[in-house]
Design brief:
Layout lengths: L17 E4 L7 E5 L2 H11 L12
Antiparallel strand pairs: 1-2
Protein name: MYM-type Zinc finger with FCS sequence motif-containing protein
Organism: Halogranum gelatinilyticum
Length: 58
């Protein structure tokens, strides 16, 4: 995998990188981002949060 941010394309090693994984084991890296700002922008751009809200009974 290259060192490019999946959102902006900058070198993640020059920043405070955030990595995402396929599951909790951490064995399969899915994405990498410069920081949480790029991760949040990527989630918004890709519509990844639509339809994923948990239902919580209060």
């Amino acid at each position: 995998m290259s060192d490019a941010c999946d959102y902006c394309g900058c070198d993640v090693t020059a920043h405070d990188p955030v990595y995402t994984f396929a599951d909790a084991t951490g064995d399969e890296q899915e994405g990498q981002f410069c920081n949480y700002g790029c991760l949040a922008a990527y989630i918004e751009r890709e519509g990844l949060s639509r339809g994923t809200t948990c239902s919580v009974d209060l």
